[in-house]
Design the sequence.
């Protein structure tokens, strides 16, 4: 799967000459599209980290619906590692999504749920088998727009050999980048968070994404979610991204999934 050198091109030619390669997949939620400059790129690993209950899975489900509209004749691969796939919630969000586009015949006729291909994995060997064996075979016969891993954290929770874990991270990301190069799909992962206390003061607690520096150095773009106490409003900030400035946005969760927060 080696890259073939195609010759230099100008900055202006990139978006037209390689449109599929550099397209972005919209979240279908204006606040997230604003934060990311249009959505998730089809190159690199896009991570969404956040507190429990901040809406990571709901955002992933909305992305799985929107991606099928933005990339015609495509499917979505959804790998669950923590819980059973929330089918009933997906069907509710699909019905709400169709209600938003009553005059769009393509949306009304499309069965979104049938084009979300779900795999459940619980440990690292199963995840490796899925990404290294089953996914490449699927890509040979099925066009996918987004690969979702919800979450990348869970299979590695019990792993105590950190050198081996770091090597596994590198192998996974290298494999996914090769597959992206040949099949032009976006990779979206959710991540848990953990509290870190400053060892000097013992009171400067920070909430940071899990899996440490070995994983963070491999992530292309990272957003982090947080909840507001006693409120349905949640926040999202850009932690890093090669072309993204630091930004902050707010959203809520309703029957249709994540939506922009209402003005206060």
Sequence:
């Amino acid at each position: 799967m080696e890259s073939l050198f195609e010759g230099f091109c100008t900055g202006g030619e990139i978006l037209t000459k390689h449109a599929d390669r550099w397209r972005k997949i919209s979240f279908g939620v204006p606040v997230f599209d604003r934060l990311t400059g249009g959505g998730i790129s089809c190159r690199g690993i896009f991570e969404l980290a956040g507190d429990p209950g901040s809406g990571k899975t709901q955002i992933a489900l909305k992305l799985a619906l929107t991606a099928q509209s933005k990339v015609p004749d495509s499917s979505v691969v959804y790998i669950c590692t923590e819980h059973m796939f929330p089918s009933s919630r997906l069907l509710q969000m699909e019905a709400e999504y169709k209600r938003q586009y009553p005059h769009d015949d393509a949306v009304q006729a499309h069965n979104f749920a049938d084009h979300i291909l779900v795999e459940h994995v619980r440990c690292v060997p199963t995840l490796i088998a899925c990404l290294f064996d089953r996914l490449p075979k699927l890509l040979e016969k099925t066009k996918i727009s987004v690969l979702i891993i919800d979450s990348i954290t869970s299979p590695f929770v019990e792993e105590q050999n950190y050198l081996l874990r770091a090597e596994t991270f590198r192998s996974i990301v290298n494999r996914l980048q090769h597959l992206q190069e040949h099949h032009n799909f976006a990779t979206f992962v959710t991540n848990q968070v953990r509290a870190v206390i400053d060892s000097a003061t013992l009171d400067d607690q920070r909430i940071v994404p899990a899996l440490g520096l070995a994983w963070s150095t491999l992530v292309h773009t990272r957003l982090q979610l947080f909840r507001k106490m006693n409120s349905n409003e949640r926040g999202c900030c850009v932690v890093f991204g090669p072309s993204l400035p630091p930004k902050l946005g707010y959203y809520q969760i309703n029957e249709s999934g994540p939506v922009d927060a209402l003005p206060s």
In short: The mean pLDDT is 90. The first helix runs from residue 11 to 17. The first strand starts at residue 24 and ends at 25.
